[in-house]
C-alpha cells in the first residue's frame, strides 16, 4: 500500500487526531463503494470510541486526494455516526 501505510504516521493527521482526543495509533481501512475505493483514517478516543480523522481516494495520477465531508459514501458515514 505504500503511501496508504504512511497515512497512519502522517504528522498532519496525527496532530489533528491529538486535538480530537485520540491518543492511540491511527488505523487506515478500505471501503469499496460504487466501484471506488475510499481509505479512511481513524483512531480511538479516550472513551474507546472510533473517531474518523480523514477520508481519501486515489486520483487518476495515483496521488491521495482528500474527500470532502459531504461526499463521504454512506458506508463510511454509517461507521462513524457521531
Give the topology, please.
Elements: H1 3-7, H2 11-19, E1 27-33, E2 36-44, E3 50-58, E4 64-66, H3 74-79
Antiparallel strand pairs: 1-2, 2-3, 3-4
Q: In one word, what is the shape?
A: globular
State mean pLDDT (0 to 100 scale). 89
The main pleated sheet reads as: 4 strands, antiparallel
Unreliable segments (pLDDT under 50, ≥5 consecutive)?
none
Would you tell me the structural class of the helices and strands?
A: alpha+beta
Rg measurement, Å? 12 Å
Q: What's the helix count?
A: 3
Secondary structure: helix percent: 10-25%
- What order do the SSEs take from the amino end to the carboxyl end, as H and E? HHEEEEH
Spell out the key features of this protein.
globular; 3 helices; 82 residues; 34% strand; four-stranded antiparallel β-sheet; alpha+beta; 24% helix
Report what the structure shows.
This protein has 82 residues and is an alpha+beta fold. The protein has one domain. It is built from 3 helices and 4 strands. It has helices at residues 3-7, 11-19, 74-79, and strands at 27-33, 36-44, 50-58, 64-66. It starts with a helix and ends with a helix. The mean pLDDT is 89.
